[in-house]
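When time allows, look over one protein, given below as sequence and tokens. The question is which stretches look regular and which look disordered:
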Amino acid sequence: QVQLVESGGGLVQAGGSLRLSCAASGRTFSSYAMGWFRQAPGKEREFVAAINRRGGNTYSADSVKGRFTISRNNAKNTVYLQMNSLKPEDTAVYYCAAVSSYDYSYTPKRRGDYRYWGQGTQVTVSS
């Protein structure tokens, strides 16, 4: 089992940047594929980005491609989401998620693929 704690959210002006962090408990962080999702008020939780166990494979939603970058540091049990050129439509609660996998290349993109979730961190982008 793994526990996830997000941090780094806040209020930023359009065009600005934020870096979200997700710290995981336990000693087997490198066994988990990781992902970021977001949920805006009144909307479904949507996929943002995913990264495989070792960090060599990443995948991002079209809405954030070229602006957001997912990365991880297995020595620090942490996954990051660097968000640049933020837009008001990026306003949402951002969630970190994890799933254990034997497949080193696995980069899951569906909400149902993930087993563990953090509590979320609010990102607000003002126009």
